[in-house]
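Customer escalation, tier 2.

The customer says the design service returned an amino acid string that "doesn't look like it belongs to this structure." They asked us to rerun it and document both sides in this ticket. The original structure tokens are below, unchanged.
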């Protein structure tokens, strides 16, 4: 799994967002819309969830990752790849920065 170099946190894991959720993060806001975890966290705005039919990934998100030795792992990994590719203008952000935005939002 890749890492990003963050100016605040150094080498960090990253989350993937649609371009719209990415704009919210640029503005210092925790992204509204939906959050899916498929190997990595994906932040997808309401519009893109509808447009790209992301609801189909909700079951996998809720069930969580299978063990890599489990036969269902391949399908899970393929779903992740498809989801990542569906977000055409996707962006990558340091996970720790996004966690900070979430804490900030909760404390408001
Ligand atoms: Zn979007
Ligand atoms: Zn960071």
């Amino acid at each position: 799994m890749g890492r990003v170099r963050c100016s605040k946190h150094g080498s960090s894991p990253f989350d993937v967002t649609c371009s719209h959720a990415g704009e919210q993060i640029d503005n210092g806001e925790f992204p509204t819309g939906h959050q899916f975890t498929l190997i990595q966290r994906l932040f997808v705005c309401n519009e893109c969830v509808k447009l790209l039919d992301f609801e189909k990934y909700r079951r996998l998100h809720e069930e969580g990752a299978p063990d890599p030795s489990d036969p269902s792992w391949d399908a899970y990994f393929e779903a992740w790849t498809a989801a990542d590719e569906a977000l055409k203008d996707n962006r990558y952000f340091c996970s720790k920065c996004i966690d900070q935005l979430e804490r900030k939002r909760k404390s408001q």
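Tier 2 assessment: The sequence is consistent with the input. Residues 6, 8-9, 12, 94, 96-97 surround zinc ion (ligand 2) (CB under 6 Å). The chain has a mean pLDDT of 95. Sent an explanation to the customer and offered a walkthrough call.
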